[in-house]
Structures are given as C-alpha cells and as structure tokens.
Design brief:
By secondary structure, the protein is of the alpha+beta class. It folds into two domains: 3-135; 162-264, Immunoglobulin-like. It has six helices and eight strands, in the order H-H-H-H-H-H-E-E-E-E-E-E-E-E. An eight-stranded antiparallel beta sheet has the order 5-4-7-8-1-2-3-6, with no helix packed on it. Strand 4 and strand 5 (214-221) form a beta hairpin. Helix 3 packs across helix 4 and helix 4 (36-56) crosses helix 6.
Amino acid sequence: MNVEEYISSGILEAYVQGELSEQERAEVETNLSKYPQLRKELDAIEAIQESLLQKAAIQPRAAVKDALFSKIDGTIPKSRVVPFSQPDKSISGWKFAAAASLAIALISSYLAYDYWNKWKKTEESLTTLVAQNQRVADDYNRVNNRLDQIEKDLNVLDNPNFKRVVMKGTPNAPGSVAAVYWNESTKEVYLSVLDMKQLTAESQYQLWAIIDGKPVDAGVFDHNFTGLLKMKNISRGAKTFAVTIETRGGKETPSLKAMQVAGDVDKG
C-alpha cells in the first residue's frame, strides 16, 4: 500500500470525525496497526482537532460556578449571592451550535489548507518530472542527430567516388591542415578542418576551387564545427582547392596574400 496516497485520500480525517462505515473503520484500524506512519498521522490530526475545539470553547460565567457549588454543598456561599436562574435552553443551544459550527469551520479550513499544500507539492513534483523528461528527450535528440551526422559523414568517407584533397598550411599558417572530399560526378564538396586558428567575429574562412586557372567560390565557414561540412557544389576541372581569410560573408575574388591552406587534386 502507498502510505502517502492513503494519507492524502483524507480517510484518516473522516475516521476521526466518525464519517466512515463499520467496514471502513475496521479497515482503517487494521492499517493503523500495520503502518506506524499512519498512526503518527492520525495522532497529529486528533491533536489539531482537539486544539481547535479548545480554542472554540465558551468560558462559563463566574455565577455558574457559585450556583454549582451551592447545589453540591447545599449551602449558599458567603460571597456575594448572585441569583441563579435556569438558563434559556434556546440560547444555550444556539451557543453550542455556534461553537460547533466554528470548530467545524476551523477544522475544514485546516484540512483544505492541508489538501492544498499536498496538491501543491504533487504539482511541483510533476513539474520537476516533466522538466527532467524534457531534458532527457533533448539529450536523446542531440545524440540521435549526432549519430545521423556521423553516419552521413562515414558514407562520404567510405565512398570511393569522393576524392580526398589534403590542404596543408602555407607560410601564412604553417600549422593549419584541412581536407576536401569532392565527387566529380555529383559535384558535391565536403570540408573537414583538422587544425585552423580561430578568427575574429568580422572574418570568415572561404574555400576556393581553382578551375582553368581561375578561383571559384566554394563557400565560407567558421573553424568551430565537427565532422564534415557541406560546401557549394564544384563542377569538373578543379585542379586545386585552397582556403583564404576574407571578411564575413566572403568575397567574389580571393585575397591570395591571406591564403591559409592549399592542396592539389590527385590526377588519378
């Protein structure tokens, strides 16, 4: 049995107020003997109700005490005698009803607050669980997308129709290395950066294909990507691939003085 759900159901409050059938009371008493946590919760409910009833109790008048002792002792106290008359039953009944109504109202208010507090905690737990599930779903999607990208990259790397052109660093960037994978039949070009420096926000790298001695734009890129990057298609006849540094967005003609890497296409 889930003890927390059992407590939240309100059956213990109904047990204390005598609202259960004999069968339901017997079931509650059986559970109380089995689960100490239920007994502790029941004691707390009874203590709260007792406190509320005591606060709602009506203090009798001082004359009532004197009259009561007079009847017990058969004598009139020496203190100032106050005539004792039979209280109006209608008034006493009204006061009792008012006190009972106040007690019920206080108990109901506490129970309503208790239920609201438990509901709020449940709502917060649900919100946390939903957020956790969303994070797991986001992580799964990222991993799944990365696996898809790796699979696509492997298809390019394993395809014999793609020529691999290694572009080594020029005197401008001797430590830079990149590679191009080019399929002459489909004109597809993919770029892999092995080691190239980070540029300023105003600059970008630009890939070029040298065809018949003329540079042809193959697209711009930043250094911070993983795997293979799809570039612009390049038709047949490319002899060399090279990368220069240009202003962000690229240029129509390359700045040859800013060439970073270059590599010739294997004639075979």
